[in-house]
Design goal:
Blueprint: H1 3-31, H2 34-43, H3 48-67, H4 71-89, H5 104-119, H6 129-132
Helix pairs in contact: 1-3, 1-5, 2-3, 3-4, 4-5
């Protein structure tokens, strides 16, 4: 892949990392609060522990994407999280501006993180020597 294309992959990776980090750390923790987020998950019939796992996956995953560490496994997890969010918002319709938030935004995040999984980390990333010898899918 050419250098300019690698920079495009990096831009996608860092942007996704910032979106997941801010979305979770600010929206789910500060605005909705952790108990509010847990309550929302429970209102969907999901166990409370899944809310904590989602917050952790988005915060930690966002940081790891920004740094470019373990991009493919992180992107795979965040794709699953985004598909779960898509499911949670199906009843609100397509537009995310609808009451209850539609599914357009989480579906876009699912597609974008799946693309990141396929593209890999790109350029400008933190390199950890132990991960240099990992299979491509784990980098």
């Amino acid at each position: 892949m050419k250098q300019v294309e690698q920079l495009g992959v990096t831009l996608l990776r860092v942007s996704l990392g910032v979106v997941f980090l801010v979305h979770s750390a600010y929206l789910k923790v500060v605005v909705f609060t952790v108990p509010g987020t847990v309550g929302f998950f429970e209102s969907l019939g999901l166990p409370a522990i899944l809310a904590y796992g989602t917050i952790a996956a988005e915060v930690v995953g966002g940081v790891l994407l920004i740094l470019g560490i373990g991009v493919r496994p992180v992107a795979a997890v965040l794709t699953a999280v985004s598909l779960g969010a898509t499911w949670a918002h199906l009843g609100a319709g397509w537009l995310f501006t609808n009451e209850g938030g539609g599914y357009e935004y989480p579906l876009f995040l699912a597609v974008a993180t799946a693309a990141q999984f396929l593209l890999g980390p790109g350029a400008l990333r933190v390199r950890i020597p132990q991960l240099q010898h990992a299979p491509v899918w784990a980098q």
